Amino acid sequence: MAQLPDGLTITWLGHATFLIETPGGNRTLIDPWVMNNPSCPDDLKDPGPINYMLVTHAHFDHIGDAVELASSTEATVVAIAETARWLGSKGVENTVDMNKGGTLELDDIRAHMVHAVHSCGITDGDQIIYGGEAAGYVIEVGGFKLYHAGDTAVHSDMALIGKLLKPDVAMIPIGDYYTMGPSSAAEAVRMIGAKTVIPMHFGTFPVLTGTPDDLRREASDVEGLEVVDLEPGGILGA
Ligand code: NI
Ligand code: MN
From ligand 2's centre to the CA of 58, what distance in Å? Predict the structure, then answer.
């Protein structure tokens, strides 16, 4: 298993929501969906102080609490340009409207926005608004790299992400139906190259049927692979 640097922690809040805390005390929430996230433990529905939010795409199960948490925490919200501008129109004061391929310094974090294969419509009342494209992030903290793939099908850019950014830990969806399931996730693991994998986006709804054991079985050929069994609320690192 990848050894996280001292003081770097990854907390799974259920579904695709993760809190990254750095040794410098930077608290970054990926995909802010807590209040109505059935997988989020009650004591984490208020995640406390947040410096940054990284949004992979505009579906409710990733962006559901972005506006409210931005207001209560004054966090800066990073998203692809169209979704960031929509958040701004909803009253989020501090937004960063970046795009894929770009890199951003957020205090002691470097965030790379990378490709994902998924849709990104924004539900706004009874309308669906164009939200740009779904993305993932590679987050560097002191040379250590975490890849959050977002919602995605398996795609060949994962090999490029593995080659160029060399993630140490990968958070990948395995639930199937809206994203890749276990057998394509196993191919993703082969391309990404990270030997520590945190499965996400499974079990939250009945259609998300993939399990970590399925991924373990499908990826049993990958030498040294550790599929981490976090429970929602569980923490990697210390
Ligand atoms: Ni989605
Ligand atoms: Mn989703």
Answer: 9
Q: How close is the Cα of 103 to the center of ligand 2, in Å? A: 24
DSSP secondary structure, 20-76, as one string: EE-TT--EEEES---TT-TTS-GGGSS----SEEE-S--SHHHHTTHHHHHHHH--E
CA dihedral 37, 42, 46, 52 (to 10 degrees): -50
- How is the chain split into domains, by residue range? 9-236
pTM score, whole prediction: 0.98
- Mark the ranges of the chain whose per-residue pLDDT is less than 70: none
Q: Which helix (H) or strand (E) holds 106?
A: strand 103-106
Cα of 9 vs centre of ligand 2, distance in Å, is 23
pLDDT at 136: 99
Q: What's the chain's Rg over C-alpha atoms?
A: 16
Architecture field, domain 9-236: 4-Layer Sandwich (3.60)
- What is the distance in A from the centroid of ligand 1 to the CA of 130? 14
- Is residue 141 within 8 Å of 162, Cβ to Cβ? no
Which of 229, 205, 232 has the alpha carbon at shortest distance from 215? 229
Ligand approaching nearest to the C-alpha of 123: 1
Residue 138 to residue 118: CA distance in whole angstroms: 17
pLDDT digits (tens, 9 = 90+) for 23-64: 999 999 999 999 999 999 999 999 999 999 999 999 999 999
